[in-house]
Design a protein that fits this description.
- By secondary structure, the protein is of the alpha+beta class.
- It has 2 domains: 254 residues, Jelly Rolls (Sandwich), CATH 2.60.120.10; 108 residues, Homeodomain-like (Arc Repressor Mutant, subunit A, Orthogonal Bundle), CATH 1.10.10.60.
- A hairpin with a 5-residue loop joins strand 3 and strand 4.
- Helix 11 runs parallel beside helix 14.
- It is globular, with a radius of gyration of 22 Å.
């Protein structure tokens, strides 16, 4: 399944408390404790960019080891979790300017949040395991909890939040590059890139673009090999550079295999009916319409509706409905205006316990935890 979104960022500053309340720390501000944030916060303080965190590697007392390869302009470092936080590490590598690789292999005991400032880079996230959520917009947090490739472009000046679920073993490779790098190194010009990836390169300001793709066997093997790299010193840096380029090649190749967004088998009338069904699911969160009710409302046969919806939108009716309801529930819980029981009823659950179970399965945390985070 592929998901391709361009999310306008008007109102993103109201997304989570850290977006509106946590401004980038000044250089003289007291550094937060190790129990706050993720690697950006640990290395450079809250609200710092990826580039600023890497610039602080050589000065940070949190770095366990630092390795250089001067001839190839490579720099590598490791940050290991303290026992009271969890277990595992972040492996950080810089490959020349504006080309960064983060190898994640960790498990936190408690949920962790971090403000992620936009830096204008394109990020390729090769997820092997774990449970991380990205606040793509006020109404659509993106949960990243299964093996897949998430391609992400976040404009400079656009801040979002990401958080990890407690006790989730995160294993992922995140590669961040300049848009120009993809054009210069992989193609002769932007017009030679797959159409679906061109939007990431020519990303207009004040937007977040993302696309989630299946993780191929080739990607899974390369990412796993990089996570379990047994080499040391310069050899480790050279291996990281080589496998990183292999992963980028596989990612660009995967865009070539994407189907065109429009389904040529769908008539104009069928597309209008499918759009009406999608709109109804977004509006009617409770009671949740059945397939039969939905089909009657838009004037389609049930089989045509279910098959057409999956074909055009890349997810089933149930998956889309659940996503809309969970995202609306998250927004209500953050606003602190409704009780958990009321939120449960608003998004179509008769019993709060059923809602709490579904919410935790979807976001990796209980509804009451959202309240505690917001009040904190």
């Amino acid at each position: 399944m592929s998901v391709d979104e361009a999310v306008p960022t008007d109102g993103l500053d109201q997304l989570l408390p850290s977006c509106s309340d946590n401004q980038p720390a000044s250089p003289t501000a007291e550094r937060p404790s190790r129990t706050e944030g993720l690697w950006r916060t640990v290395l450079a303080g809250p609200g710092r960019t990826l580039k600023e965190a890497f610039a602080n590697l050589e000065q940070s007392s949190e770095v366990e080891r630092l390795v250089r390869h001067a001839q190839r302009d490579l720099l590598g470092a490791r940050v290991t979790l303290a026992p009271e936080e969890g277990e595992g590490y972040w492996e950080l590598t810089r490959i020349r300017d504006d080309f960064y690789v983060i190898i994640m292999n960790f498990l936190y005991k408690k949920q962790r949040f971090e403000l992620v400032p936009g830096d204008g880079l394109i990020q390729f996230n090769f997820k092997v395991s774990g449970d991380m959520t990205l606040a793509a917009s006020r109404s659509e947090p993106l949960r990243f909890n299964r093996p897949s490739l998430l391609v992400w472009a976040q404009s400079t000046g656009v801040n979002i939040d990401e958080w990890t679920a407690p006790r989730a073993h995160e294993r992922m490779i995140a590669i961040s590059v300049r848009p120009e790098f993809l054009v210069e190194q992989f193609m002769t010009s932007i017009v030679d890139m797959p159409p679906q990836i061109q939007a990431f390169i020519s990303n207009p300001g004040k937007q977040v673009h993302y696309c989630q793709l299946p993780l191929t066997a080739e990607m899974f093997t390369a990412a796993s090999n990089l996570i379990h790299n047994r080499l040391d010193g310069k050899l480790s840096l050279l291996y990281t550079e080589a496998v990183t380029l292999e992963l980028l090649c596989a990612a660009v190749k995967s865009f070539n295999s994407l189907p065109t967004p429009a389904n040529p088998e769908c008539t104009a009338r069928a597309l209008r009916c499918l759009q009406a069904a999608r709109s109804l699911l977004m509006r009617q969160l409770a009671p949740v319409p059945t397939i039969r009710q939905l089909a009657r409302s838009v004037g389609m046969a049930e089989t045509a509706l279910t098959k057409g919806f999956k074909s055009v939108y890349g997810e089933t009716i149930f998956e889309f409905s659940l996503r809309c309801r969970m995202q609306h529930a998250l927004m209500l819980l953050r606003d602190q205006q409704c009780s958990v029981d009321k939120v449960s009823e608003t998004v179509g659950y008769s019993h709060p316990t059923s809602f709490a179970t579904a919410f935790r399965r979807y976001f990796g945390m209980r509804p009451i935890q959202v309240r505690h985070i917001r009040s904190g």
